């Protein structure tokens, strides 16, 4: 009888969303573009500074001449939102990875029945990891215009921050989907 062999939809949703979330969060964490600084006074008009949580790059838009490892003259990396992101983003990535390992063990297809309790626990871990990356992304966004930048320059949200947000949301949704497995445990009791 086939219906007992099928993997519940919520588990499949969780196992699709969470690895996508991990990939986006990883990219957002590693790439140096949480914020873009442009139209810096006394600099070429096409110069864009990209600031991440680990590195700063400058790029000339006309020639795509890009240099990373820029000096942090304004104390950007000493700001609390940046330091919190440096701590929480990698923590979130490790938790996501662990959650996915537990989820894989809970959902495994080589058994007749998924392990609902294990999948539910994985869901909670993934939900937590999503929240852990959402917090620094939200705080950084809130402080984006307050973080040090050359006076008179234009500040915009960078793609790394957007990817971090999207990844966090996918992990939260995937974690919630997997956490629905607890419902099955309660039904069995």
UniProtKB/TrEMBL annotation:
Pfam families: PMP22_Claudin (PF00822). GO terms for molecular function: structural molecule activity. It comes from Pandion haliaetus (Osprey). It is found in: Cell junction, Tight junction; Cell membrane. This is CLD23 protein. GO terms for cellular component: bicellular tight junction; plasma membrane. It is a multi-pass membrane protein. Keywords: Cell junction, Cell membrane, Membrane, Tight junction, Transmembrane, Transmembrane helix. InterPro entries: Claudin (IPR006187), PMP22/EMP/MP20/Claudin (IPR004031). The chain crosses the membrane at residues 12-31, 84-105, 117-139, 159-182. Belongs to the claudin family. The keyword Membrane applies.
């Amino acid at each position: 009888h086939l219906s007992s062999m099928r993997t519940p939809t919520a588990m499949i949703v969780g196992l699709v969303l969470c690895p996508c979330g991990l990939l986006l969060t990883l990219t957002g964490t590693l790439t140096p573009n949480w914020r873009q600084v442009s139209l810096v006074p006394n600099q070429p008009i096409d110069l864009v500074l990209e600031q991440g949580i680990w590195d700063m790059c400058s790029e000339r838009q006309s020639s795509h001449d890009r240099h990373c490892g820029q000096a942090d003259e304004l104390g950007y990396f000493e700001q609390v939102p940046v330091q919190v992101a440096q701590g929480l983003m990698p923590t979130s990535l490790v938790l996501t990875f662990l959650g996915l390992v537990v989820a894989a063990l809970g959902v495994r297809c080589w058994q007749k029945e998924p392990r609902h309790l294990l999948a539910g626990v994985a869901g909670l871990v993934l939900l937590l990891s999503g929240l852990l990356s959402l917090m620094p992304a939200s705080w950084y966004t809130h402080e984006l215009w307050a973080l040090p930048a050359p006076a008179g320059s234009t500040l915009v949200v960078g793609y790394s921050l957007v990817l971090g947000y999207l990844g966090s949301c996918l992990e939260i949704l995937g974690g919630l989907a997997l956490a629905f497995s607890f419902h099955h445990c309660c039904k069995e009791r």
